[in-house]
């Protein structure tokens, strides 16, 4: 096919954003018709619905019964900040960073909490540090999947069962899309608007028994804002993990979250979700392997994200340009796709190298990713020809 010719087949759903992510297939506002609106979330019905989110989450993800699951404010950011402010301090900290969010947690630990014993382990975009050298006598903070960097940890085998410190995991682009070994995780956070395509501003916080013990035995030296307070009378505030949220949640978003969890259950649970992710990633990978102008930012297949897939342009004409020109090219390319209604929000994150970022999570249909590839080819060659002629 002449790559300058506009493809015939369009993605039925062009939403490939890495956050907020696409709604589940078949979703419509009608699923929210019975939402518990205009009522107190502390009413018995409201509490029951919030508890339902927690228990369905536990069932789908296979989270152990002795782990606490809470709904907290301010999305994944609020959840991870709550964790950092609540548990850090008693021992040294190692922050692993290979993309913008991991870098932000490092800034918070250094400049906001101002801890003394900090080890920063960094890697460039598209790379991952040597995980065999991580010091688990410390509390270790990392993103399971780097949403902006296209890199994930390959598994949990590098995390020892007899670790001394806590593992604090930003799991927002991994949970519901990757197999998380919960015995290797002490604290995990994510947001509704990522892998399940829910609505924003609500975070999830999972605590292992070891994390609960830390919270109950340790009093941080800094003032704790109300929305960060997980302790009540020197014990974990159990209410947070039973649906009695710290502040007022949106019951419309709660209804939407329940709908997504029911959809996952109807598919067959986590195994089915992971299968959809793998099929999606395979479809996009097949296109990447056949395209001569683009490649994965992550060269190590074992560490390559299969949800927020980050791609960089390798065409020599493009790589010869300076970064500003490259970003201008990507803006034109993504703008053309947007105008055509064939791919929305597929530009790389502003902190990442110029390129593309395409979500392959379970709420995306494989057929849409198969249709996307030819449109990316067409847009690249069209914009390249326009710029060469200018």
Describe, in plain words, how this protein is organized in 3D:
The protein has 390 residues and is α/β, with parallel strands linked by helices. It has helices at 44-61, 75-87, 100-112, 209-217, 251-267, 270-290, 316-319, 323-340, 366-389, and strands at 68-73, 93-97, 118-122, 139-143, 145-146, 151-152, 167-170, 187-191, 202-207, 231-232, 235-236, 294-296, 308-313, 356-359. It folds into 2 domains: 29-266, Type I PLP-dependent aspartate aminotransferase-like (Major domain) (Aspartate Aminotransferase, domain 2, 3-Layer(aba) Sandwich), CATH 3.40.640.10; 269-389, Aspartate Aminotransferase, domain 1. 35% of the residues lie in helices and 15% in strands. The strands form 4 sheets. It has a 7-stranded mixed sheet, with helices on both faces. The protein has a 3-stranded antiparallel sheet with strand order 12-13-14, with helices on one face. A two-stranded antiparallel ribbon has the order 5-6. Helix 8 crosses helix 9. It is globular, with a radius of gyration of 22 Å. The mean pLDDT is 97.
